Amino acid sequence: MSLLPVCVAHSLEHRAPERRWLIESLWSEEAVGIVGGEPKCCKSFLALDMAVAVASGSPCLRRFAVPSKGPVLLYAAEDALHVVRKRLEGICNAAHLDFARLDLQVITAPSLRLDLAADRESLSETIVLLRPRMLVLDPFVRLHRSIDENHSGEVAPLLAYLRDLQRLHKLAVVLVHHAKKGAARARAGQALRGSSEFHAWGDSNLYLRRSGESLNLSIEHRAAPSPAPLPLGLVEEGPALALALCDSPGEPAEPPSDSAAERTERALANSPAPLSVTAIRNSCHMRTQTVTACLAELVRSGRVLKTSAGYTLAGPVASTAPEQ
Prior knowledge:
By secondary structure, this protein is an alpha/beta fold. It folds into two domains: 17-252, P-loop containing nucleotide triphosphate hydrolases (Rossmann fold, 3-Layer(aba) Sandwich); 257-313, Winged helix-like DNA-binding domain superfamily/Winged helix DNA-binding domain (Arc Repressor Mutant, subunit A, Orthogonal Bundle). Helices cover 30% and strands 23% of the residues. It has helices spanning 43-56, 81-94, 117-130, 152-169, 197-201, 260-269, 277-284, 288-300, and strands at residues 21-23, 27-28, 32-37, 72-76, 104-106, 134-138, 172-178, 204-211, 214-221, 230-237, 240-248, 251-252, 304-307, 310-313. Helix 1 packs across helix 2 (81-94). The N and C termini lie far apart (78 Å).
């Protein structure tokens, strides 16, 4: 007879509060879930932004902090590899990151069908080798041969396999999935195409919706409160595009004041050279007034140096002499 492992309730593993989030307020640590939306709602852009954030430790959408970075594994089945690269470069430009140093591995196999035992084994072995903190699969419809998405008995085993991956390898799983066409009036989770298993499966779910020219992001968590929908927009970053939070069309959103210093220091830490006020403003998506006030306080406290080339973190390795 083989007994199942058990332990007394008070001996269950306790996770420190600071480890609750993989991406603060956006995606729980080691969560499985859906990035959903109708076609042309920027689902892939959002999934790639999350991948860049976790791989680099920079805030997702220049707003949502990543407490601890780690490797990311990505399978983007609907876009050519050169398109994936261009999008990733645009996101790195928006976050002032060195694209060449990004710890993000892209699966280049022409197909990945997770209803096939051989493909499951290949994915599992790749995860064992690379040990990613997050796996991004985009989209569900390209991950199987002939599963009926409306039939819970066919959908559930594949979702269960992804849950098993999450538990066995202690990683987050982000699954991009389409919403029904014309489901704008339905609740976010109910708008997903196919079985209700998709909505029920997720620990953290993100839904993108268009209303006219507006694009909004809804956030749902199994074990945390959900904020109000957030407006998003695509912005040009050099020759590429990236998603950004917006207070209104074309206007960058203002982050909470108590996080301005942290975001400013992170932008400086991620830059190989001193940054100007404008560069920090664009990286952190803060207003100029907020940036200048924050920098003044950081300089007064000795945490940041103002140099002839811009602002840089204080430290023994600073290469540019402070202004007199």
